[in-house]
Specification:
2 copies of one chain form a homodimer. Helix content of chain A is 40%, strand content 18%. By secondary structure, chain A is of the alpha/beta class. Chain A is elongated.
């Protein structure tokens, strides 16, 4: 839950990092090579493109230059609070042109997964999370309830609780109104309804939902339910490779010509590694130098192919590449 | 979250269990032997002595007979909602005579643990759980806050959150008002306060806080926080052997002459095994035949020394032993 102050933090630890790191930051030559090697660029949003509502300096220009170079630019966020439509709105608001098909969010991933396995439409989904999950479920014809509609409900040991026996899946994501009631209701569905699926949009421990503070992520929701039902969920967002098929089919993308850019080792970079893409870690989000060095030194650590302080740093070389192309 | 209907459930599976079990239920001879071999009897409460507010048939008489035989009778519950004083009140209400020193609850275990390591009294504890934890902390001179006082607080991404940098321990137990706010506050203390301890009264997945339904236990609280801070808590209640020292010192008890009686394999029986006691599983709580058979068949399963359908079954042989003694 480090307060992000990337410039200051990085400069303080530069000396130690340079000694301990097995790979330094991308050089200008590295960046030019990346622009040559990869046609499809998949970006995480929070901590990579923006922090809360503030776009990270230089990132919009770097993305614009990528597009001028003819690159496919996609966005993939584990934040399950919104639907793809809402993310599109946010992209447009911050001055980042996009199409809804360019956006992959974990609320969509949960709906796409249930759709892909032919989820019985006579069953319902119980949602512990935000409206975005319910919107994406509705878009594939799956009835859901719970979510923000259950925010005010409270469990009481003085009255018994009933649950809907037609719930065939519990879908959970980050929920700023997580409550004992919701955990209990979800657990009853999972423990008492035969075959009820436990779906996690993601298991991120923390997220930068506001610029200066890390907040409890979907890891809180998943952890609470898992602590009761004693089984692991099916994860549909990063680092699960599930969405790669969808991306490959829609955008005619080859993993070998693609690069994942993100701020989290355990989701963004792991997802890229799991799907056969190149990976580029940026230090503008949750990963600090200490964590990066620790992972690099660990035999089972998640090791990104490339590291940059900020994706905004690319704007200089992208400009250069563009001029060379002319 | 099986609805407990012990008599019916056991009779239905008797045939299968007899074939699959490596050890059948205690015979009359076994019970008489137990009465001869063990001087100290430690009992779980929920699911062993009572379910919710209903005492299990025959158990009070069996306990009375044990005491007439000169046995030491202690109670140990992982339910952290109440203090020892409150449990004493409940025991007396249901007609079970006891002294506060005979009662061990996990709220006490957390306070006793912090006391045992010399917790700095200039620091505070943040509690995610019920008032009982705060009462036991106060009894050893540790200032705490949170608990039920935070039930109505809500986190909001539209305003930043502050936390008390003087929190030196987060103590969590079952919390029927678990909320995102509490999880976030606890996580901030654990992630931002250097050396802040993560204490779990227990990690029980579920508990029979009402007679006919299983409810989310401390596992929900611990799981939610663990899902954010990505580290394991120090567990002070069952199955942690921590309280055995306290019991041995106060009651002059030897593990080899003691037997743990409980309904949970992963807490009661494991605690008994961890502390070198004999163990007696009763089938009046969360363990069903299927789970028992699965554990017995597993190489790393938790295997009780003895099994009885209900501790109330002992009343017949205890009566017999008492008559022989005269």
């Amino acid at each position: 839950m480090t307060v992000v102050a990337a410039d200051a933090a990085v400069s303080q630890v530069d000396a130690a990092a340079a000694a301990a790191s097995t790979r330094p930051r991308c050089s200008t030559e590295d960046m030019l090579q990346l622009l040559q090697d990869y046609d499809c660029w998949v970006f995480d949003l929070d901590g990579t493109i923006w922090r809360g509502n503030e776009v990270i300096e230089g990132v919009l220009e770097a993305l614009e230059l990528l597009r001028k170079l003819g690159k496919k630019v996609l966005f993939m966020t584990n934040n399950s609070m919104k639907s793809r439509g809402s993310y599109l709105d946010k992209c447009l608001q911050v001055g980042l042109p996009a199409h809804v098909d360019d956006i992959y969010c974990s609320s969509y991933s949960a709906a796409a997964y249930l759709d892909s396995i032919g989820f019985d439409r006579s069953k319902k989904a119980y949602v512990v999370g935000e409206r975005g999950i319910m919107q994406e479920l509705a878009a594939v014809g799956i009835e859901s309830f719970g979510g923000p509609d259950d925010n005010e409900k409270r469990a009481s040991f003085s009255s018994e609780m009933l649950h809907d026996t037609q719930v065939g899946a519990v879908v959970c994501g980050v929920d700023p109104n997580l409550s004992y009631y919701k955990v209990q209701y979800a657990s009853m569905c999972l423990l008492l309804n035969p075959g009820c699926l436990f779906i996690a949009t993601n298991t991120d421990a923390r997220g930068h939902f506001t610029p200066n503070l890390e907040w409890a992520g979907a890891g809180a929701t998943v952890g609470a339910i898992k602590g009761v039902v004693e089984r692991d969920p099916i994860v549909t967002g990063k680092p699960s490779p599930f969405l790669m098929q969808d991306i490959a089919a829609k955008h005619n993308v080859q993993p070998a010509k693609s690069i994942m850019v993100g701020d989290r080792l355990d989701t963004d970079i792991l997802w890229g590694l799991n799907t056969g893409m190149a990976t580029l870690l940026v230090m503008t989000g949750v990963t600090d130098e200490q964590l990066l060095v620790a992972q690099r030194g660990s035999s089972n650590g998640v090791k990104p192919h490339f590291v940059m302080d900020s994706f905004g740093d690319l704007r200089r070389v992208a400009q250069q590449a563009l001029q060379q192309q002319k």
